[in-house]
Amino acid sequence: MLRSMYSGISGMKNFQVKLDVIGNNIANVNTYGFKKGRTTFKDLVSQQIAGASAPTAARGGVNPKQVGLGSQLSSIDTVHTQGSLQTTGRPLDLGISGDGFFKLMSGTDITYSRAGNFYLDQTGQIVNADGKFLLATGNAKITIPTDAKSFSVGADGTVSYINSTGVLTTAGQIELAKFPNNEGLEKAGNNEYRASTNSGAPLPSVPGGAGGAGTLVAGALEMSNVDLSEEFTEMIVAQRGFQANTRIITTSDEILQELVNLKR
Q1: In what order do the strands lie in the sheet with 158-162?
Q2: CA atoms within 13 A on the CB side of 231
Q3: pLDDT tens-digit profile of 204-216?
Q4: How far is CA 192 from the centre of its chain?
Q5: Model pTM?
Q6: Scanning 108, 168, 182, 207, which has the fewest C-beta atoms within 10 Å of its C-beta?
Q7: Are strands 94-97 and 126-127 parallel, antiparallel or unpaired?
Q8: Are 28 and 224 in contact (CB under 8 A)?
């Protein structure tokens, strides 16, 4: 069989993965805190037809002759660039301006998120849309008494409220997690991430502190960093690449048909 046919098959598979990643990006264009994916390729093994030879006094050197056997998937990256902050005016909508992540806890399981749409449950604890607790320094839960007159969240993550007697009280300080390698985090679904062996252990930090995790913007939410114009352009490139590889397979098939017909 022709090598070009198998090269075309490898190209089709890779462009299909690229289209899958693009489709996921477009589907999450309005998902708070979503970070887009990016697909990269690399060439597959090359078959050696003839090796290189060094120059001599009588003859110059000769370059190697190799035929590539297709492409393969190199990486699927998560691009952790800052998304734009959309003002909502809601006090429990929190945006991060920086590289940090909110710490969420369910039972003993801790996950990390950039989505800052939080809520109060029946007991006054700050939770996300799935009921996971937002953690303060020391992995403590943040509770605002149900009889509090008002509350606010500062740029340094300090959650304050005015109690029933009119005294300003601090409920806790939101802690942000900073990772040595954000791109090494594993997506866990539900706008959440988990630490992996390549992300490194989270480094606790408070908003605006020396850890470099960033500051909080209350009354705002971070939008997805997906650029629709870029995604549509990449989709066209992937589609044309897929079509070109199918043409390679079709042409190879026609050549094989000609070989079969030689006996007739």
Answers
A1: 150-153, 158-162, 168-173
A2: 18
A3: 888 877 777 889 9
A4: 10
A5: 0.87
A6: 108
A7: unpaired
A8: yes
Q: CA 138 → CA 115, 212, 214, distances in Å?
A: 21, 18, 18
Q: Residue 253: which of 23, 21, 9, 33 has the closest Cα? A: 9
Q: Measuring CA to CA, which residue among 37, 1, 7 is closest to residue 241?
A: 7
Task: Choose from 32-36, 49-53, 63-67 the range with maximum mean pLDDT.
Answer: 32-36
* Domains of the chain, residue spans: 3-46+70-80+226-261, 85-222
- Which neighbouring-strand residues pair with 127? 119, 133
> Could you give the CA distance from residue 234 to residue 34 in angstroms, rounded to a whole number?
18
Show the tokens assigned to 122. Answer: 């029946």
Beta-strand relationship, 119-120 and 203-205: unpaired
Q: Do residues 238 and 12 make contact, with C-beta atoms less than 8 angstroms apart?
A: no
Q: Report how far residue 132's alpha carbon sits from residue 106's, in angstroms, rounded to the nearest whole number.
A: 5
Question: Parallel, antiparallel, or unpaired: how do β-strands 85-87 and 192-194 relate?
Answer: unpaired
pLDDT-derived band of residue 3, with 50, 70 and 90 as boundaries? Answer: confident
Render pLDDT for 18-36 as a digit per residue (tens, 0 to 9).
999 999 999 999 999 999 9
Quote the percentage of the chain above a pLDDT of 90: 78
Beta strands in 98-200 (DSSP E): 101-106, 109-113, 119-120, 126-127, 133-136, 140-141, 150-153, 158-162, 168-173, 176-178, 186-189, 192-194
Q: Of 139, 113, 138, 140, whose CA–CA distance to 128 is shortest?
A: 113
Dump the DSSP string for 19-58.
HHHHHHHHHTTT-TT---EEEEEEE--EEEEE--B---SS
- Token pair, residue 194, equals 């988990």
